[in-house]
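Dear support,

We are seeing what looks like truncated structure output for some complexes. This example has two components. We would appreciate it if you could run it in full and send us the complete token output so we can diff it against ours.
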Amino acid sequence: MPTTLTINGQTHSVDLPDDVPLLWVLRDEIGLTGTKFGCGVAACGACTVHIDGAAVRSCQVALADVWGEVTTIEGIGTPDRMAIIQEAWVEHQVAQCGYCQSGQIMQAADLLATTPAPTDADIDDAMQGNLCRCGTYPRIRAAIHAAAAKLQEA
Amino acid sequence: MSRLGTITRRSFMVLGVAVAGGVAFGTYAVRKTPPNPLSPEGEAVAMNPWLIIDQEGVTVIAPRAEMGQGVHTTLAAMVAEELDVAWKDVRVLHGPPAQAYYNAAMMEAGLPSAHYTRDEMSGWQEALLHAVPKMLSLQITGGSTSTVDGFDRMRHAGAMARESLKEVAADRLGLARSQLRTEAGMVIGPDGRGLPYADLAADAAQVEVDQPDLRPRTDWKYLGRAMPRLDMVSKATGTAEFGADVRLPGMKFATVRMNPKLGGEMRGFDASAALTMPGVERVIDLGSGIAVVASNTWLAFQAADAVEIDWGPAPHAETSAELFGKIAASLDDPPNSTLRDDGDVGAMTGTVVQAEYRVPFLAHATMEPMNATALLEGEYLTIWCGNQAPVVIQQKSAEAAGVSDQNTTVHTTFLGGGFGRRGESDYAALAARIARELPGIPVKVTWSREEDMRHDFYRPAAIARFSGAVENGTATALFARIAAPSVTRSAMQRLAGFAPPGPDKGHVEGAFDQPYAIANYRVQGHLTDSPVPVGFWRSVGSSMNGFFHESFIDELAHAAGADPLEFRLGLIRPAHAPSAILLETVRGMSGWTGRTPQGVGRGVAFTYSFGTPVAEIIEVRDEDGYIRIANAWIACDPGTALDPGIIEAQMVSGLIYGLSAAAQEEITFLGGEVEQFNFPDHDALRMHNTPRIEVKILENNTLMGGIGEPGTPPAAAALANALFDLTGIRARELPLNKSFDLLL
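Here is the complete output from our reference environment:
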């Protein structure tokens, strides 16, 4: 029986087995490829999306267990209308290979939603599950601080 | 279909009619320009192999792969610098496989001399260096060579196009070319009237002009500045297309399982259970392994786990201990190379120091697991993947699909990390092999992380034995012997079917070519015959030799009772002044005094690799019995800093990559299989354990150097030296978490 999901405000009917992880529903079925596959075991954070606004590893959420509205990187902003956090990523020239950055941004967006003025320690705690083999961490940290400042102005 | 698809589709067979040969090269080194592989459709015009002009602006065709190092941005800035176009109107695409995109700097990097001893090359030397890679179509992104290789050619591509556009405008306006100037994508006449490039391009591509002088640095508007990366917005919005993201109508999703006992055969398999699983369409016998084709990648993963496979044994040693035994034994063989042999290391006097060091095999572990998409239509094969060597991808994929090279199109996407791993072609050839079984149906083949980590071409394990002598506070002798499986030979065997004879320079890079004035100085390489597949891993030989050489220099300094930084300065200053300035720079940045308070340790290391000398200082701090890698200072000298923002990012990246490996990474073997499966077994530094890092970029060096790799080699030694300073324990084996309680 098809499962109904709300993704980035749109309703999708998905006909896949219940245990298929949300990651692979998004990527292969819906075609939202901004969310990345990195490890499949919740060890890298590349697949991070929001469910009801909270960051989750989509490789660990079975289709049948999706408990709320899903937001992916495509849902928070577009190249023409970037979210403030994405603008901060561009301003600080964070990405290198870029493969992990969707997950980094979704994780950071969750941090800023719960902790509007994060300390370095807050950033360490929130972001340590997100691996980046290019080592963009210093610029991620700077971009999070910048986005926090901008969001507080807004 | 990508935009380049419409430009190059099967066009390698048909030279673009609108293109004048020789536009880009002029007198530059190569008299006969290789064919222009571009033949855009519609209104777009290919000015030369590097540049297309249409109504939307200019598209720079990058001969090198964007794998995070920012090279697309810098290559585009080179063209734009001469062409006078607004940065917002510049786009970049990966070039197709083509002879025109050969890498000449790669050949120069192979010269068996130290970079710091070289001058500007004479014309014939340069011509020779271009001849071989051109002949071989050596279109490779590696060796930190892209900007050095592109620096003249890409600027000439822009300058020649600019003058051709002006020539056409001059003709139309009845003026002399010298009366015209160019700005923001237009040729502008004395009356201020502007003709857009797009209106002139078709005629300009037919015009031949003399090669103009390149603009002096004082006139640069884009180069020498931190430019906004052209891939940044797409990478911040999830819209950048990586190999894993390619989507085609009717596409199937597949995965592979190859023998975990590397190099072993497949005796047979039972797919009956897998074939009953949801979404599974095919299980394909690949001879050396199996592929599962399904409606979804995860369903393919699950089914692949359910295929029962009888794997044959590995042809190499079964355990890491046996492999290290082989490496140690090769130290007793005659050396493959003695690329440094100054004075006489036979009669050491004074205080003699001896040490043996070991480093493990390492995986690349790119964030994006290996993948490729393939489509076979009749005799035509199309491949989509991130890769560092499109010509090789073309050849090996064509071979796997049973079609000709000419009938094989390669679309290079962004790479979710390369680090040398995507210089191989195995993942593309497997996709082509699977496409052969699915004619007319596009198939994306994605490896699981486990498959990726366990089927790498590893940075080789290595053992080094050093001896040296100190007298009167300085080094008088250094003798290094380095043993490991040869990356060059392993890779060339896969690439060309033979291992090149002669001295293997890459094996001893980072050790034989260092600017230390030590009177008696010998460096020898020993090659271990080992069938564990080894490959190019960010900074290659320097990745291990930087650790060996700079750990030993530190040991000599302590034996001499000298400050490790001042000891190095004394030896480097007479050999290479720009390198000495780097040591003085990190000394100043860090406030190095040679003394550290209780609970703090500092270490310094210096490696000159890929044309760029780099000095690094690491500070470690004791935190309740655990050791934090707290701070790092880097000074580098690439000669000419084309983009300081990107250089800073690459230095930080290289350091973190090196520290990650030094702290905790190793690949080990048991029963012929790699014992590590996923990131929890082979992790890297993360946000919370990455040090605070400061970078300074200097420009005193004579020749231009690379950027992507030189930050990596000093990292491990600087950390090990800092740990010695903190604890008094000299760790001679990596990773360092075997010897210390690192806060990871």
